[in-house]
Amino acid sequence: MRTILLIAAASFAMTACTPIASPAPEASRATAEAEPQLMYWDDLTSRERPVPDETISYGSDFLQVADLWRPAGDGPWPAVLMIHGGCWQTDIADRTLMAWIADDLRERGIAVWNIDYRGVDRDGGGYPGTYLDVANAAKALRDNAARLKLDIDPLIAIGHSAGGHLALWLGGQQNLPEDSPLRVADPVKPDFIISQGGLPDLKLAATPPGSGCGTEVVDKISGSGHYGDTSVPELGPLRVPQVLINGLSDPIIPTDYARAYEADMKAKGDDVRVRFIPDSGHVELIAPETAAWAAAVEEIEKKLGRNPQ
User: Fold this and answer.
1) Is 308 inside any structural domain?
2) Looking at the domain assignment, is residue 14 inside a domain?
3) I need a surface site. Which of 148, 164, 229, 230 has the fewest CB within 10 A?
4) Residue 88 Rama label (left phi>0; alpha psi -120 to 50; beta)
């Protein structure tokens, strides 16, 4: 997983950072000391993976499922809808990549509805299948909330990387064009959305050199340029509070993506904030011991009216 996700970013970094001349030893040491030691995927995925309490289907495909992480006690519990990333490709990541932060929220007394979906590399995935899966997974949370003793008022959606795009897209469903194949009946609209290193503006992500995901996959997830119903700024204003949490040293997602999105959506009248986390990359966003994840927890607990632990 580390190799797949970092290959594009590494290629760019090697090109951009090759020195014209060898620096002085003192300069090399100073640079090394200044550079943050970022996490690799293996630093997270090599750990023992916690397990959910239940897996619930929302469709007939084996990827149309959600893992329920249920806290101890009798409930009801506040619930968070969680969406994994992986450049919208199932071969790169699935819902299990979010297991460690889902478990962290469970330990904090917050239930998690951690969804999976068909990526662009799966039959039925891409445009419109990936979007329909995410929309229907959110509806399944609403439909099962009372039975499972989940309190979804407010409903918080959080997504990492490509999942950040999909979480924000959920907030824009009411603005989909009438003829869009991405529309579902009676869609679920989150009350608060957190994007962790997301790619909300597909037009921008499709512009070379793009991100660590590359531009070809953006063409696939946008249905070859159907930005009017896939790129979140095209659906604005969402009229949902949004927070974008990004690592300042993220080698996968350019920080300009968050800055440009914030400016664009604020101009449309939306409540958008960006939080840049120093010495953090892409993996830190979903590792429970990091400052990047602590920022997300702070936002979740604040929205739930709780004092962060």
Assistant:
1) no
2) yes
3) 148
4) left
Whats the size of the chain, residue-wise? 309
Cβ atoms 159, 195 nearer than 8 A: yes
Name the 3-class secondary structure at 232.
Answer: helix
Q: Which pair of tokens denotes residue 288?
A: 């429970």
Cα–Cα distance measured from residue 237 to residue 171, given in angstroms and rounded to the nearest whole number: 9
Q: What is the pLDDT of residues 205-236, one digit of tens each?
A: 999 999 999 999 999 999 999 999 999 999 99
The total of structural domains in the chain comes to 1
CB–CB of 258/244 below 8 Å? yes
Does residue 115 lie within any of the structural domains?
A: yes
Tokens coding 131:
């979007």
Listed in sequence order, the residues at least 6 apart from 154 whose beta carbon sits closer than 8 Å to its beta carbon are 191, 192, 303, 304
Asked if 111 and 81 count as a contact pair (C-beta separation under 8 A), the reply is no
> 306 vs 6, which has greater pLDDT?
306
pLDDT at 34: 58
The Cα–Cα gap between 286 and 79 comes to 18
Question: Domain of 110: which CATH number?
Answer: 3.40.50.1820
Range of the domain at 11: 2-303
Element (H, E) at 273: strand 272-277
Mean pLDDT of 25-45: 70
